[in-house]
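batch job 7 of whatever, protein = asparagine synthase (glutamine-hydrolyzing)
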Amino acid sequence: MCGITGWIDWNEDLTKHADTMLKMTETLELRGPDASGTWLSRHCAFGHRRLSVIDPANGAQPMIRPLRSSEDQDGVVVYNGELYNALELRKELEERGYRFRTTCDTEVLLLAYIEWGPECVEKFNGIFAFAIWRTDEEKLFMARDRLGVKPLFYRLEEGRLLFGSEPKAILAHPGVPAEVDAEGLAELFVIGPARTPGHGVWRGFRELLPGHCLTYTRDGTQTHAYWKLESRPHEDDVEATARKIGELLTDTLERQLVSDVPVCTLLSGGLDSSALTALAVRYYDRNGQGQIHTFSVDYVDNDKNFLAHDFQPNSDAPWIERMSRHLDTAHHPVQFDTPELVDALETAVLAKDMPGMADIDASLYLFCREIKKGATVAISGEAADEIFGGYPWFHREDALKAETFPWSLSAGLRAGLLSPELREMLRPEQYLSDRYAEAVAEAPRLTGEDQTRTLMRRMSYLNITRFMPTLLDRKDRMSMAVGLEVRVPYCDHRLVDYVWNIPWEIKTAGSREKGILRQALEGVLPHDVLYRKKSPYPKTHNPNYLSAVRARLLERLDDPSSPLLPLIDAISIRELAAATDAHSHLPWFGQLMSGPQLFAYLLQMDFWLRHYKVRIVS
């Protein structure tokens, strides 16, 4: 995994701008702590920061290879990601006459493009964001993996395109102001911490959509989708479906365990992470690779303050110990206290270049920082709930019929926290309604489906394309901010393709959420773990955290220089702060962000506006 950035400009000689390219590249140092490289030509400049995972000695980037059609012209690549079918592609390319200089997948990717052109992406199994420059045609080609696990932002203006793994690389260009317009503010205050697909929040920024390619030449820009969810009849019965899921998940996980550096798994004691850990242990045992290391996260005094509810029915700790003992893993429990979480709120903003999931982000950053001390690659269970329908809102009538995103049920509350001027500018409830209508209109339907199947397919689409990216974005930024690569097997596109079309009554086989996944894992997990009710990523329940972020926010509201004040209704927020206690449940965003996270989000917003010196433009 790495950080990439680039600058294509038809009006400048970029060989004269080495300092700027280096500055853009070095903003991504945390993503790639092992090596740095730049490449400049007249109209294209690339920068790369490397986290060495495969072939550390020989995989330096930007990587250059001669084009097959023109030996005196080159293809140049900067690449962030991992190809899990690199060995198969390498063999196919060797049969076509290519000779490899390294064992890294960067060379496989570049030669695949040289051989197959833009169609190469259809052959890739992995997570990736990359850019390739053809010197003969003066053409930039960029692509992003099918589910959007790896980020890729860009800014296009007359005669110039800038791109980067994170907005900070683009913001480092002297010609790019740190500005946000009304639509960006709507993303932050109405949609945030989620984002509308493709939206970059910063004025003029876009994010290349998952499963999309972009081509940039002197004639302009073209984008197209090379992959999308397609609805078709599901023909397998329950037993065949469970068997297929088991085969796909096993193959996917084993591909993702390949690495030249230490690998671990994240273990919560829930279905998703326990399954991946169990399959990893089987693979390690079969190949004589020894004991696998597992990591878990918890918080000081959570055992004393845990409050069970529909989204978080029980604590993880006993289940983590159960699975670690059962699988004989080398387990590493990690625990944080309130001061660490509060202090890390600002670090999390710097990792994302915008406010995020507050302490949910901050704790993940701290967790990844601890994991990095013992491993470079981690296996995580993200996306299983979105793909298999595990969240409570898949099973609640009010959420299914809410005519809005089920994680954004408090639109009126959020709108009431904004200043009258900002409410007038953003029209928050209309903005949310429009984004929801766009999402529903995109969802691919299947002719002949009954009302229930259609409704559940729509809910699945909203989760896969709108909620899941929020968690993937969070996982990428917080892990890469400490140079940790996190792999997410449930995002394998073959698995997602297959599960997308499984009818709801089969997905809930046995009248249980994710019933078909549980059936697929019979014999892999102990029965009690296999049928444990879902519990999400843990957050702190310590009342000290609420007290700390509330007090700090009130201090900011007392500061007349706070850039947050013109954007909010300070009186309403003070009233809300006074009325919120440790037992209050404020459904601000999703299943994890309640009152304390709202106050922390506003703290992050204040810090973001100050630190980045954000200018708001009309």
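notes: DSSP finds 24 helices and 19 strands in the chain.
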